[in-house]
Amino acid sequence: MSTIFDVLKTVSVNHQEVESHQVVVTNVQGKPNSLLTDLLRDLIDNALLFVSLTDVNSAENLIAQLKTHTPLPDDVLAEYGKILGEPCDGLNFAPQKGQIELIVRR
C-alpha cells in the first residue's frame, strides 16, 4: 500500500513536483477532507521550499531533513510525519477541476 509520501514522490504534473493547489485529500466516496488537505498543502507550500523530494527516499528522511534545515517546531514536524505516512488507497484525476484527489480511508 502506498502512502501520501509515495504519491508526492512519484506523481508529477508536466514533469514538475505536485503543487499544493493541485491536491485534495478525499475519502473513498470522494468527499474532501479539509483538515488533511490543509495539512498537506501547508507541507507542500512551506516545508518543501527547504527540501526537495528528489533528495529524500522516505517520509522519515524528509522529516529529518526538515528538522535539520528549518526552524519548524517538533509538533509541526510530527503532524507532517503523520500526513506523509497516511495510507493512500488510490488517486482520482479530476482534470475539469485541475486537481488530483488522494484517496484515504479516514
Task: Using brief descriptors, characterize the structure shown.
three-stranded mixed β-sheet; single chain; 4 helices; alpha+beta; two-stranded antiparallel ribbon; 106 residues
Describe this structure in words.
This protein has helices spanning 4-10, 34-46, 59-69, 74-85; strands at 2-3, 12-13, 16-17, 23-26, 87-88, 90-94, 99-103. The protein has 106 residues and is α+β, with helices and mostly antiparallel strands. The strands form 3 sheets. A 3-stranded mixed beta sheet has the order 4-7-6. Strands 1-5 form a two-stranded antiparallel ribbon. Strand 6 and strand 7 form a beta hairpin. Helix 3 (59-69) packs antiparallel against helix 4. The longest helix has 13 residues, at 34-46. The two termini are 15 Å apart. The mean pLDDT is 92.
The tally of structural domains comes to 1
Helix content: 40-55%
In spatial order, strands of the major sheet run 4-7-6
What class, by secondary structure content? alpha+beta
- Distance linking N and C termini: 15 Å
Weakly predicted, low-confidence segments: none
Helix and strand run: EHEEEHHHEEE
Give the DSSP E fraction (strand runs of 2 or more residues): 15-25%
Largest sheet: 3 strands, mixed
How would you describe the shape?
globular
Please give the count of helices. Answer: 4
Total count of strands: 7
Radius of gyration: 13 Å
- Quick check: average pLDDT? 92
